[in-house]
Amino acid sequence: MAKKLPKTDVVIIGVGWAGGIIASELTKKGLSVVGLERGKERVTEDYYMAHDELRYALRYDLMQDLSKETITFRSNEKVRALPMRSYGSFLLGEGLGGAGVHWNGQTFRFLPYDFKIRSMTIDRYGKDKIPPGMTIQDWGITYDELEPFFDKFEKTTGISGEENPMAGKRSNAYPTPPMLHTPSMKMFTEAANKLKLHPYTVPSANLSENYTNPDGISRAACQYCGYCERFGCEYGAKADPVVTVIPVAKKTGKFEIRTLSYVRRILHKGGKATGVMYTDLTTGEEIEQPADIVVSTGYVFNNTRLMLLSKIGKPYDSASGTGVIGKNYAYQVIKGTAAGFFEDQKFNLYAGAGSLGVSLDDYNGDNFDHSDLKFIHGGNIAHTMTGQRPIQNNPVPEGTPIWGKDFKAKSLKYANSVLTVGSQGSSMPFRHHYLDLDPTYKDQFGDPLIRITFDFEDQDRELARYLSDRCGEIVKEMGGQNILKLKELGPYEITTYQSTHNTGGVIMGENPGNSAINNHMQMWDMENLFVIGASAFPHNSGYNPTGTIGALAYRAADGIVEYSKKGKLLV
Amino acid sequence: MSEQEQQSKPSKSDQGQTMSRRKFLTNSGYAVGGVVLGGVLGYLLPKGKKQPAAQPAPQPNENRNFNEALMFFNQEQYMITQAAVERIFPADDNGPGAKELGAAFFIDHQLAGDWGFNARDYMQPPFYVGEKTQGYQGRLRRREIFYIGLRELQNYSQTKYKKDFPSLTPEEQDAVLTAFQNDDVKLSTISASGFFNLLRSSTLEGVYSDPLYGGNKDMKGWVMREYPGNQMSYTNVIEQKFTVMQPKSLRDHL
Question: Region Disordered: start and end of each range (chain B) (predicted)?
Fold first, then answer.
């Protein structure tokens, strides 16, 4: 029999970006919030030895311990799903601040096209443009409705940036000016201008200058140390939940964080959530935390798995295309890149910041004509300087062996002389791509793991090749030689790192028939349960997702406060 | 007196250690029985060099690296690893190879800990042969893969050249490693190319990780590629042309 604790107004499952935002906004409005986090507590002082490529980038010090829990993967329903035994394709976060601690900080807004993707695609190209099996749908919200919340997230985090000429309208300028430009960023900008494209500085959560946000939180400027992705920031310069929203919530005295507390079920009765059951990982004890409102703010896989384990919402069935939980799992097409070798030039590639770069959206969303193309949407193209650390960055010209005398000589020669232009291709959902519970493999408690059924489609293959060609044109214009480009996307495989931008599973939409939650992130089937994160995305855009998650979380916070007063469905 | 001070103090026990190490080599050579004795002893003992009658006693202030000892490998495994990493990343005009950089010590130390045990990997059964896209699905842990892989390097060298791997010429060693890389060697227990890839990636880790871990000796791996290591700020150089600076390690940060 589980120990039962006193009831709280709101319980949050997972204290990362979404959980931190909900906690800060709700406690400001006087609600009592308990935050349950399965990982440990984290503070900036933990990153004193942060510049350690082996520990953080290759041994995944900040990531989820896969020995306790992982995911299983298969390309299609005919294949037996097998566990991801070690890290590869994506990296799962864990601990206070979640993956918000080791993100790069690139903070885009999804395009107006993203939120109306189905209707706008049909309007411009006709219904036949959407291939059979592609399950894109409008999000049940418009860019304009979400704009104030993008603005709010950017102010909280102090995003450094400049106007993007090919994106949705902004109500305000970015709170801080753009990051400094390296010589190679200037080369990219010049090349893009010559090609009549529209370059702009990547919007960055690594601060370009000291900044105090509307909550009164002050942070120092970025030092361009070159250790962002996979690392924590020892300066607190990179916006992360631990140095922005969590202290605001704590200061109210209304927020109680319990770390090492693994939520295993959402409890419910008569169509309403009554609280959660979690395991205290320090004692193994099962504990019941009753609450008026439950907010699931985990990563894509955790949010979806928790719904399925708790038997909330109708599980998606690919055969009939009905049900919603697990539907529209999408990813990102990241391999459409090009790298150029610069024979007589060296660059300070060791320096940088997670969001230091210049990008363009001429080939993103529906910013270009797709009439003669065999795909929809596109991707952001960027040249970024995130710090080329030596174990993981050893590019050599095509045909060079991967070890031995020649490898050593060439990898040293080009260690500071290769510039990459990359793309972040969008990912469209398909009827046969989804998440469900694995029938065989279990986690540390004996609960089933989440199972991914996913592969690249023709849409992705065409998109990757197209974006790689566009990247190649820019690298060439920059003066790069022996340009390496993508030849063939190949099947999706789980072993090579690509992107931790997984999406879908508990998606938002216009009605309960095609979505799990409404545009306040409120479950259609359970009005006092909110599910927030990239799990809400019906497809994935050609951008990093965090800006849009932040906006959806701020909007959800308003909705939850309203619900706490009115107590009914908000849509 | 601390343990370290005791160890660095010149004493008779240093001579005693030298003696016992020699005795150990002889014994271990004897113990391996089936393996060709000449080969084992042939590379463990320096060729054509007379052993000094006694090691010179270390001076009190001599800078000895106590980290250069083995946590996991035996002598034979260490010597094979050292020979192999040097072929993967050889000494050349640019600077030292993986051997001098201590990559074999690095790999030994890594295999002795969490990584060698796959402590943070999902190692639960059932184990099935999967698609290539599904990644490693074996039940063996990295330390077991190394254990088997190093022995198979030795076996293959014996079959092909009638010599142990460390005794082969560099060209022959390359041929052996290439055979593993291309899966021309058929093994029943592990994937030859899987082992090779593990060896290759851990060699690069040993060459370029912070010296804290036993490789990248004196930051010479970083110096070769003009990597500055652990610096607190690049704000002053971020807008500048290529700037070379004296590298720093995490030790400098304490």
Answer: 1-20
